[in-house]
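Subject: for your reference before the review

Hello V.,

The reviewers asked for a structural picture of the protein, and I figured it would be easier to keep everything in one thread rather than splitting it across files. Below is the amino acid sequence we used in the manuscript, unchanged from the supplementary table.
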Amino acid sequence: MTILISRLMLGISLVLSIALLVVRAQAEDSRSLTEILPANCEDSCFAGIQLGITTDEEALNLLKVSSWIDAKSVRLIPLDPSSSKFDDLGHIQWEWAINRPRLLATNPTSADGNINIRNHKVESIAFDTLLPAGAIYRLRGNPSGMEFMPTRNGEQWAIEWRYIYASAEFHWQMRVRPCPYLADLWLQPLHIFMSKRVLVQTTPTARVTPNINLHTILNARERQSCGTI
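And here is what came back from the structure prediction:
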């Protein structure tokens, strides 16, 4: 009886320890998430950089003084002008420093972070993360839009959520197995692409698309794609 009680207490202790670790990890993820991503990109999208406002020189200086970024790796790459609009184009790349937030992922085959420049202003920012899709959904709720397409002859799905704000769009991209993809969708790490929102003139008769219900869309897609209906 004593042995049974001891084992029971040990089991309870293990469960409580695991629960505490999960709560602590979620709290750390939340802190890192709010550090990495602003609420709506009105004041700053990343490292003090504002889409469509910060110049290429300002972006270079902000990246070099960030404790998350290896200053020696930051470089500006001039590109050929666009053929259609004759815009001046450029590209900024960098590598993460060792003391970056743990949710920022390094890329062994290419630059860790990328910024596109148009006419000497920041047009977009992109980098890989270890942020799970579920964390973004808990923070932001249903996205404004969604793209869903098969890749590699249907071996994987590429899914993109879009969150649209007054001055910027956040695109979250992930890849999941084809069927059943809901089983691991929420754990997939996200690629982040932030871009300046181009405001479109609307007419009084223009249709306004409300936020999608992500759970409904995903369940319907899976039933249709995986042959369960």
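For the response letter, the relevant points are probably these. The two ends are 52 Å apart (CA to CA). Confidence is low (pLDDT under 50) at residues 14-30.

Happy to draft the paragraph if you're swamped.

O.
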